[in-house]
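S.,

Sequence below, as promised.
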Amino acid sequence: MRALVIDHTARGGLRLAEVPDPVPGPDEVLVRVAATSLNHGELPRTGSAAAEEGTVPGWDAAGLVERPAASGAGPGTGARVVTWGWSGGWAELRAVHVGELAVLPDEVDSVRAAALPVAGLTALRALRRAGVTPGHRVAVTGASGGVGHFAVQLARLQGAEVVALVGDRARGAGLAGLGAGQVVTDPAEIRNPVDVVLDQVGGPLLARLLERTSDDGTVVSVGAASGLETPLAPYRLVEKRLTLVGIQAGGRTAADLAHLARLVAEERLRVSTGRVADWRSAGEVAEDIVARRVRGKAVLTLS
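The prediction came back faster than expected:
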């Protein structure tokens, strides 16, 4: 089969190559992939742990079940599914455990489905871990990216008031339409303290945002895209009782993937695809993601 493999000499660190077909385990289905997405954290140029020469990365993929699980578990041949896994999504065929996929509603196409797993699961589980309830004020950093777009919408669906933080005004375009009550480039612009912070950036931005967080606020860290240390000013935070937690995006994802797909089918969750391209353009798209030239999700279709 063909797959995108790590090649550090190629554009974006990726090239198409022939690799062996995956061999499914007893509780795994074999999926013919129709679309996959690229995430910043799995790209060769961003220090991914999976960036070994010749390997096939890929967390997100959607397609058709070509061979059902030998155990009889999971969907049958021809079922349209969305899948999650730590590798193997950037290939024509993917072996995936039945606990890491969901059957897609008819209303959800493969392109939008492929954008859901990592970004959608991260946002959903972060907000759940923070215990967001109606009336909470939630700040989302990196709101112009895939996780951010989902987090803004999911927090609003839970009845929260949402503050979206972006790198510049242009990147904030469209976030108000997704449910953000305020779109800012600096925490100093936030009108009232927030109860929950969903942070993907870290560094000085997070330090300034903590000063605009309520005394008993919760901070959920899902990334550190800035690559910088967070310089805390203890004298400014001495009266606060902040809770800092992390989350795991993957593992036992079937129910959450099905939930996200239903929200998309019901038009309560919008998938923001900033780039859709043939997978032969993967290197170029990867470079644009690293350079922050893509708003929302980048999806590749397999030809």
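The mean pLDDT is 92.

Coffee later?
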